[in-house]
Amino acid sequence: MNFRPLRDHILVEPIEREHSSTLAVISHEKHARGIVIAVGPGKCDKRGRIQPLDAKPGDIVHFGDGTKTLDNCYAKVVDGAKIYRVIQEADIAYVEDSQIDLIGAKHAELAHSFAQENSAA
């Protein structure tokens, strides 16, 4: 896939919420969760300087506010069987600090290889 987000846009691969078949847990989490695959250069300030984004490829982010749905509010990018969403930095509620889990490590590696492929093009 050859895709480069512009301005303060961010390419995110949504992560499905885990559901337990043994125990029903009620979650009050309203945000969608995803792994950052690629980020744009940043947003221009009033003086025309580009302000880099806080999110980086490999970060696990929580985005949206519960009133926005993935299908209705965020652009969809399909690459084969994978579905990505394009969000803006302002849509990110927070970035998870724990990058140690296996999902984060796997996606960070994918994001790194994606960034290398697109920088060579």
Architecture overview:
There is one protein chain. The chain is of the alpha+beta class. The chain has one domain (9-120): 10 Kd Chaperonin, Protein Cpn10, Chain O (Roll), CATH 2.30.33. It contains 2 helices and 8 strands, in the order E-E-E-E-E-H-E-E-E-H. The strands form 2 sheets. Strands 6-7-1-2-5-8 form a 6-stranded antiparallel beta sheet. Strands 3-4 form a two-stranded antiparallel sheet. A hairpin with a 2-residue loop joins strand 6 and strand 7 (82-88). The longest helix has 19 residues, at 102-120. It is globular and about 40 Å long.
Instruction: Report strand %.
Output: 25-35%
Q: Give the H and E element order.
A: EEEEEHEEEH
Helical content class: 10-25%
Number of helices: 2
Radius of gyration: 15 Å
Shape: globular
Number of strands: 8
What's the CATH C level? Answer: Mainly Beta
CATH domain fold name: 10 Kd Chaperonin, Protein Cpn10, Chain O
Give descriptors for this structure.
121 residues; alpha+beta; 10 Kd Chaperonin, Protein Cpn10, Chain O; 6-stranded antiparallel sheet; two-stranded antiparallel ribbon; 2 helices; 8 strands; 19% helix
List the SSEs and their pairings.
Blueprint: E1 9-14, E2 32-39, E3 43-44, E4 50-51, E5 60-63, H1 70-73, E6 75-79, E7 82-88, E8 92-95, H2 102-120
Antiparallel strand pairs: 1-2, 1-7, 2-5, 3-4, 5-8, 6-7
Quick rundown:
The protein is α+β, with helices and mostly antiparallel strands and 121 residues long.
